[in-house]
Structure prediction request, 104 residues.
Amino acid sequence: MSELPDDAVILDALREVDDPEAGMNIVDLGLVYAVETGPSGVHIDLTMTTAACPMADMIVDQVRDAVAAIAPPDTAIDVRLVWDPPWTPDRMTGIAKEHFGWTF
Prediction:
């Protein structure tokens, strides 16, 4: 099996996945809680801004597709929705806060 991309490369790929309701990528929104690579493949913990997010399934599919596009064929990709800790705007990067006009 070819070598898996490192966490930074995976995060760069995930920056291509937008939360369509927010109009911002999921990394800068702070929705990606963990990225781990190992012998069993790629594991990603992801949250949504709210448990009622109607786009959650679509975003999870896009995350899986983004990682599959940069990983060796047949890499196991496990994307898990987590709700603890709950997402807050504090998780957003400065880029996202500026996008929403939340810079102080």
